[in-house]
Protein: Cytochrome c
Organism: Sphaerotilus uruguayifluvii
Amino acid sequence: MRLASFPALSSLAVAALLGLATLPAAASPDEAMNKAGCMACHAKDKKVVGPAFKDIAAKYKGQPDAVARLMDKVRKGGSGSFGPIPMSPNGPDKINDADLKAAVESILKTS
């Protein structure tokens, strides 16, 4: 059976392939955090508006669900974990799931 036999399917397949072809290569965690705007409020070793990455790493050290919990915090935003200043939600349009996971894993390795 040829794909051309199904015009709607072939259009979807072509669109999907073109979409995949135009996705940027996965960024390094630092590049992803810069692009997403994380570094406007955070730094690796000092508090800016939000907590330092080293402080986040220390707070979540040894917690097996730390990556999932922090990803959820980034997605939903909020305040209270490190003080009263709220962090706005950061959706997949700002940082995709793979880059967010890599960024959180990188943050948790900060010392």
